[in-house]
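Review form for a predicted model. The reviewer records the input and the model, then writes brief findings.
Reviewer: anonymous (R2)
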Amino acid sequence: MTHDILEHDEKGKKVKCLSCGSPYEGFFCFDCHSLLSFSGDMDYFDMLEIEKRPVVDMARLKENFLRLSEYVHPDKYHNSSQEIQELALKSSSLLNKAYSTLKDPKERIRYLITLESDREAPVSKHASAETMEFFIEASDVCNEIDRYVKKRGGDETLRQGHLKKLSDLKKETGERWEGVLSEIAVLDKEWLTQSGDNKKTKVRRLIVLSHELSYLSKLQSLIDELIVSIS
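Model under review:
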C-alpha cells in the first residue's frame, strides 16, 4: 500500500493509489482495496461526504461513518505490515473524531465557524443578554443546591424542593437549546446560496448561537450532575 498526491480540487488534495493508479479523496481505494493515507487538506465534512453547512443529515452522516469505518477498522489489518497497522489505527481515530464532532450540534457549529473564518472558533464569551441572564440565575440556583449537597443530609422536604427546581431548570434549558437549534436551522436553509457580506453576516450570527449552545451545554451538565448527587 502506497500513495502519492495528485492535483488540488475544491475538496482538497487527491490521493493516488500507487497499487492501481486510481485517484481518491478518502481513506480507501475502492478499485484495488488498498488503505490510503488521508489528505490533510480535507475537512471533516469532506471526509464523511457531508455538505458543509450548519445542519446535517444525521442518518446519512451515521451511514457514511459506519461504511467508512468498515474499510479502516484496525482489526482488518492485524496481519498486515506494521506501517499499515499504524495507518489503519490513525485513520480510524481520525474518522471517529470527525464523526463525534459533526454529530454534536455545538461542536459541529464551532468547527464550521473555524472553517469559514480560517481561525479557531472563539471560546464562549458573548451569548444573548437573555441567555446570559438565564444562565446567571440558573447558576445561582445550582450553587445553592450544591451547598445543600455538600452538607450531606438535610430535610427531605427541602431535598424534594431542590429536585423540583433542578427538574424545572433542566426542562427550560432543553427548551432553550431547541430554540437555538431552530434558529440555526433557519440560517441553514440559505447557507449554501450565500456569499460575500451576506455569508459573513450569517457566520457572525452563527458565532453568537455557538456561544448560546456552549452556555446551555455547561448548564445542562451541571444540572445533571446535581440531580445525580441529590437523588
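Findings: DSSP finds seven helices and five strands in the chain.
Further findings: Residues 1-13 have pLDDT under 50 and may be disordered.
Recommendation: see findings above.
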